[in-house]
Amino acid sequence: MMYDLSPPISNTLPVWPGDTPPARRMILDMKKGDNLTLSALETTVHLGSHADGPNHYGKDASGVGELALEYFLGPCDVIEAKVSRGERVLPGQLVGGVESIVTTRVLIKTGTFPDPQNWNNDFAGLSPELIDALADRGVRTVGVDAPSVDLFSDKAMIAHQAILRRGLVILEGLMLGPVPPGRYELIALPLKLMGFDGSPVRAILRGLDV
């Protein structure tokens, strides 16, 4: 079994309000008589399913291209959170509890951003208490099915700051709707964009029996 966690990227995919939406600029086009088709992509690096570089929320932190691949590849727990829109996930809201997590990568399924093509501001975020509990459990990578680990209105980015303090890395914008909770292999490699504050990823989960 394989699950594709990445939304299709086109000029209709919403991005964070005020950020740069994806646009394709045609340089050469075989349909117009050119010998080949060649295009350029202009977009935010925080596009669809993406990894944050620590320098997105830490002034002197590293970029996404400097992060080790092990953060984004390997066994992973998908766990559901019983949380309402606009709330922060607390440790006690994880179905099965933090103690059910045995891998260093965890994806948290909130169901509060159900359709990437239709933006909603009231998605759930993560609490600093949850970040500390995950880090104490040995988690190094945390992913969410929302555009951010923080609430839309949180300019202080308290979950990001807790993640920076505890040395975790972030995956955001994952489509976890059809994925049953359980243990999988995560493959969500960012581009090697040195010094950049983020990168799109093509995120997939594979069953561990594959």
What's the layout of helices and strands?
Layout: E1 2-4, E2 23-28, E3 38-42, E4 50-52, E5 73-80, E6 88-89, E7 105-109, E8 125-126, H1 128-136, E9 141-144, H2 158-166, E10 169-172, E11 182-187, E12 198-200, E13 204-207
Descriptive report:
This protein is mainly beta. It has one domain: Glucose Oxidase, domain 1, CATH 3.50.30.50. 9% of the residues lie in helices and 26% in strands. It is built from two helices and 13 strands. The chain has helices at residues 128-136, 158-166; strands at residues 2-4, 23-28, 38-42, 50-52, 73-80, 88-89, 105-109, 125-126, 141-144, 169-172, 182-187, 198-200, 204-207. Strands 1-13-11-5-7-9-10-4-12 form a nine-stranded mixed β-sheet, with no helix packed on it. Strands 2-3 form a two-stranded antiparallel ribbon. Strands 6-8 form a two-stranded parallel sheet. β9 (141-144), α2 (158-166) and β10 (169-172) form a beta-alpha-beta unit. α1 packs parallel to α2. The longest helix has 9 residues, at 128-136. The protein is globular and about 60 Å long. The chain starts with a strand and ends with a strand. The mean pLDDT is 97.
Number of domains: 1
Relative strand content: 25-35%
**CATH architecture descriptor text:** 3-Layer(bba) Sandwich
SS elements, strand count = 13
The assigned structural class equals: mainly beta
Distance between the termini: 7 Å
Biggest sheet: strands, sense, closure?
9 strands, mixed
CATH topology value: Glucose Oxidase, domain 1
What is the fourth-level CATH superfamily?
A: Putative cyclase
What is the succession of H and E elements?
EEEEEEEEHEHEEEE
Overall pLDDT? 97
User: What would CATH call the class?
Assistant: Alpha Beta
Q: What overall form do the CA principal axes indicate? A: globular
Poorly predicted residue ranges? none
Radius of gyration: 17 Å
Helical residue percent? under 10%
